[in-house]
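CORE FACILITY INTAKE
Project code: CF-77B
Contact: R.S. (postdoc)
Sample description: multi-component assembly, two entities in total
Requested service: structural model of the whole complex
Turnaround: standard
Below are the sequence entries exactly as provided by the requester. Do not edit them.
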Amino acid sequence: MTTLRTAAAVAAAIAALGLTAAAANPTVENAIHARQAQMDLHAFNLGILGAMAQGKAPYDAATAQAAADNLVLLSGLSATLHWLPGSDNATAADTRALPAIWANLADFAAKYAAFGDGARAMQAAAGGGLDAVKAAMGGLGGACGACHQTYRAPE
Amino acid sequence: MARALATLLALALVAAAAGYVLALPRTLPAAAVAGLAGDAARGERVFHAGGCAGCHAAPGAEGEARLVLSGGREFATPFGRFVAPNISPDPVRGIGGWTLAAFANALLRGVGPDGRHYYPAFPYTTYARMALADVADLRAFMATLPPSAEPSRPHALGFPFTIRLGLGLWKRLYLDPAWVVGGALSAAETRGRYLAEALGHCGECHTPRDALGGAVRSRWLAGAPNPAGEGRIPDITPARLTGSADEIAAYLETGLTPGFDSAGGHMAEMIKSLSALPPGDRAALAAYLKRVPPSR
């Protein structure tokens, strides 16, 4: 329920932003940089957990917990400022974000919220042993993939 | 003058007749599938390795719904828009009424039960390399899936691509069941080659195409423009795919790269199929990818 409310709020906020953002064209480039930096932080923290899940790094409860906590924090960042209208790959350079995002804002927000759900599930699991981390990994990685499948262009 | 014209006309007729004969569908010998019973359990692995659900499940289908092969997914290409048909076991709207020979001709020769050529959006240039025993197993498995009464929708193509007979000539140029990667291969690499070149159809997107839409074999898996629009399908030869075989196998299971980016686009769909394979098959695919000539 919280997830739904968050998703609706994010969608509404992005849509409202559309009214003003066209005038703020110089910030499109910065917004693209900012969200790509956020994605790097996702990948970095997911990587710590993934390396443990794949047996490339030893399981450490505190490290796993810290990475999962970071992912939860990241999932709570307001998306509205980073996904300016006009920052899609048909309009702006150096981005793979598809225009479909802005045509389906509610679904985009729901997929972002699903990442939050996956991160919270990992947060609950991270300190509970390697098997728990492995079990939570599928849902978390799946949430990343679900959004990329629909809203990100290939290279 | 009249004589020259008559000769010219005769030559044109002969050329047209020859072209027509060359363009006719070529089906498998009737005896090719004789005695093949088909094993549904084995066919499930063929089904996942072939990525059938990635195109033929309804758009957006997840989980068990991916086993309902009602079709409907659209593919934008330079030749027009293709729509995946219903290949569920429904006897009317699907392919439940087909014989094994018809099923084999569709996969290996790109010919429908009505004798028409299929468009190569259906990757029969890949499936042409399939073992007939796998074809029979696949059919046995697909017969166990839920039927769908969803009618198949027609493709929306521009002239001259609406003339299916022309595909007969196209097949003469590009339907080549020879393996692309040759040389001495280990057992795992050989299995990986079969999974990639006969089932997984990696080359359909990752290999560039020429002006007529045929795969450029000399640039096998070297990356290509995205047929659906913006961006590029990446190079997956060792020139670009520098991770270890273990990392490649992990990606094929989880969709996560060594840098923990996640697969997107149609590859995310393919990962759903590949993750259902036994681990040894993903390891074999990784071993094969390490043997593909690096792009330059």
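Facility notes:
- The interface with chain B takes residues 39, 43-44, 46-47, 50, 54, 89-90, 96, 98, 137-138, 141-142, 144-146, 148-149, 152-155 of chain A (CB under 8 Å).
- DSSP finds six helices and no strands in chain A.
Invoice: internal transfer
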